[in-house]
């Protein structure tokens, strides 16, 4: 098609987009390529050899005129798309669990285990820190082995729904068991029993999110620790989350409605959170469609 007339190129691109529903990318450098560049979903023009008309009609300008640069563009584009999917998966899990726990507890017992300040901290983990951690994952070569996302592809895939629902069920069950059997298990009695139990629920919930954030690094691969130390932002975010959680529980009792926990209670909270990782690995073994 390189030496075809401008309208032939335009017709080909138009039919690929409309009749076949494909996502079409076109490269060009001449004035006669302008109609096809404008019609395509993604028009790529050459920055050095390309004419001004071609550059104005294109979406992306390849400054070095090196065709292999398109591979880098595609790799980073896929990386951004998948990183957003990871963040949305993590965010929906936190939202679903927090909403169900507080709503069901308020309806059945008359009080919610998570206070407004605690939910605000969870929201910070979910939105600000979670976005920083998961959105800064660098691209890797495996991204180019994935099938491209079609025009009608769902942003929240079946894989994401599987991970979200599996994690949500586990976290809800853990918090509900703690709420109903926690006093008996930890031998809590006295006037501060409810405060200790709610602090334990809050601590366990936060550590579930910490380990779920690690599991969210990969939506389909079981090995989620590969290359984790190379992402310094991710490590820094996790470290800050854990440090601030310790400060909130141990030192900000009046402000956050918490009380200091014993080493046994800390150990149980961290273990309950850590269990989200093997559960996430088991969930990834369940086959689902890629749509």
Automatic annotation (TrEMBL):
- Coiled coil where? none
**Mode of membrane association:** Multi-pass membrane protein
**One Pfam family this chain carries?**
Hydrolase_3
- Name the Gene Ontology molecular function terms of this record: ATP binding; ATP hydrolysis activity; metal ion binding; P-type calcium transporter activity
Q: Which residues cross the membrane?
A: 159-179, 195-212, 233-254, 266-286
InterPro entries attached to this UniProt entry: ATPase_P-typ_cation-transptr_C, ATPase_P-typ_TM_dom_sf, HAD-like_sf, P_typ_ATPase
Q: Which reaction does it catalyse?
A: Ca(2+)(in) + ATP + H2O = Ca(2+)(out) + ADP + phosphate + H(+)
The residue range of the signal peptide is none
- What EC number(s) is this enzyme filed under? 7.2.2.10
Q: Ranges for the Cation-transporting P-type ATPase C-terminal domain?
A: 112-286
Cellular component terms per the entry's GO annotation: plasma membrane
SUPFAM superfamilies, alphabetized: Calcium ATPase, transmembrane domain M, HAD-like
The listed locations are: Membrane
The entry's keywords? ATP-binding, Calcium, Calcium transport, Ion transport, Magnesium, Membrane, Metal-binding, Nucleotide-binding, Translocase, Transmembrane, Transmembrane helix, Transport
* Protein name as annotated: P-type Ca(2+) transporter
């Amino acid at each position: 098609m390189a030496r075809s007339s401008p309208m032939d190129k335009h017709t080909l691109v138009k039919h690929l987009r409309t009749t076949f529903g494909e996502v079409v990318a076109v490269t060009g450098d001449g004035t006669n390529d302008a109609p096809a560049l404008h019609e395509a979903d993604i028009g790529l023009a050459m920055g050095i050899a390309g004419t001004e008309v071609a550059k104005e009609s294109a979406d992306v300008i390849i400054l070095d005129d090196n065709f292999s640069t398109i591979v880098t563009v595609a790799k980073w584009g896929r990386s951004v798309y998948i990183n957003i999917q990871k963040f949305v998966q993590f965010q929906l899990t936190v939202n679903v669990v927090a909403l169900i726990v507080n709503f069901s507890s308020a309806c059945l017992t008359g009080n919610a285990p998570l206070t407004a300040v605690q939910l605000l901290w969870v929201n910070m983990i979910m939105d600000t820190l979670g976005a920083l951690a998961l959105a800064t994952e660098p691209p890797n070569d495996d991204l180019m082995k994935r099938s491209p996302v079609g025009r009608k592809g769902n942003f929240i895939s079946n894989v994401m729904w599987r991970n979200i629902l599996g994690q949500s069920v586990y976290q809800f069950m853990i918090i509900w068991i703690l709420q109903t059997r926690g006093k008996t298990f930890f031998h809590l009695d006295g006037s501060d029993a409810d405060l200790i139990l709610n602090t334990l629920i809050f601590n366990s919930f936060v550590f579930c999110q910490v380990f779920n954030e690690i599991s969210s690094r990969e939506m389909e691969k079981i090995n989620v620790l590969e290359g984790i130390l190379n992402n310094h932002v991710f490590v820094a975010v996790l470290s800050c989350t854990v440090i601030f959680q310790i400060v909130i529980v141990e030192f900000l009792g009046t402000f956050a409605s918490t009380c200091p926990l014993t080493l046994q209670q800390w150990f149980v909270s961290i273990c309950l959170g850590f269990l989200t990782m093997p559960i996430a690995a088991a969930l990834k073994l369940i086959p689902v469609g890629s749509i």
